[in-house]
Amino acid sequence: MQGSCLCGSIVYQADSLDTPIRHCGCSTCRKAHAAAFNSGCGVKKAHFRWLQGESLLAQYESSPGKIRYFCSRCGTQLVAEKVGVPYMVLRVATLDEDPGVRPSAHIWTSHEVPWLAYGGALPRCDEWPPGYPG
Questions:
Q1: 2 alpha-carbon distance from chain centroid
Q2: 3-class DSSP assignment, residue 43
């Protein structure tokens, strides 16, 4: 499977997803991704490689021993790495194709914010909602 950043400058290859996909709602993922949660999974380092743009990677140590890698041009977070862990944490939303598996759980729900609402109660729109001026 290939994945890339928003601007397309960085491209990677993941031969397999080696842990289940989980939606992480911890406070650092929410801040780092500017989203309610991050969808991630583990990919063994031997199953991951950069195909293009590796020199454009920037990094940030968001907590002791955890490095987040992102595109220095567009800011897309691509992977994270923890010291001593044999796999990368892949940001599943950066895949350019369907990985063929679905998320298995929400994790760090103790950090969820009160405005976050899951379930079928919210309306769903294929694109912009009717009458949206965008």
A1: 14
A2: strand
Pair of tokens at residue 78: 């691509």
Using pLDDT thresholds of 50, 70 and 90, give the confidence band for residue 106: confident
Q: Write down the H helix ranges in the chain.
A: 27-33
pLDDT at 56 over 80: yes
Q: With 0-12 CB in 10 A as exposed, 13-18 as middle and 19+ as buried, what is 86?
A: exposed
Quick: pLDDT tens for 7-21: 999 999 999 999 999
**CB-neighbour burial class of residue 92 (10 A; exposed 0-12, middle 13-18, buried 19+):** buried
Hey, which CATH number is domain 2-111, 3.40.640.10, 2.60.40.740, 2.170.150.70, 3.10.150.10? 2.170.150.70
User: Would you say 111 and 49 are in contact if contact means Cβ atoms under 8 Å apart?
Assistant: no
Alpha carbon distance 52, 9 (integer Å):
7
Residue 118: band (very low, low, confident or very high) from pLDDT cuts 50, 70, 90: low
Cα dihedral 45, 29, 78, 104 sign:
positive
Could you give the CA distance from residue 128 to residue 134 in angstroms, rounded to a whole number? 8
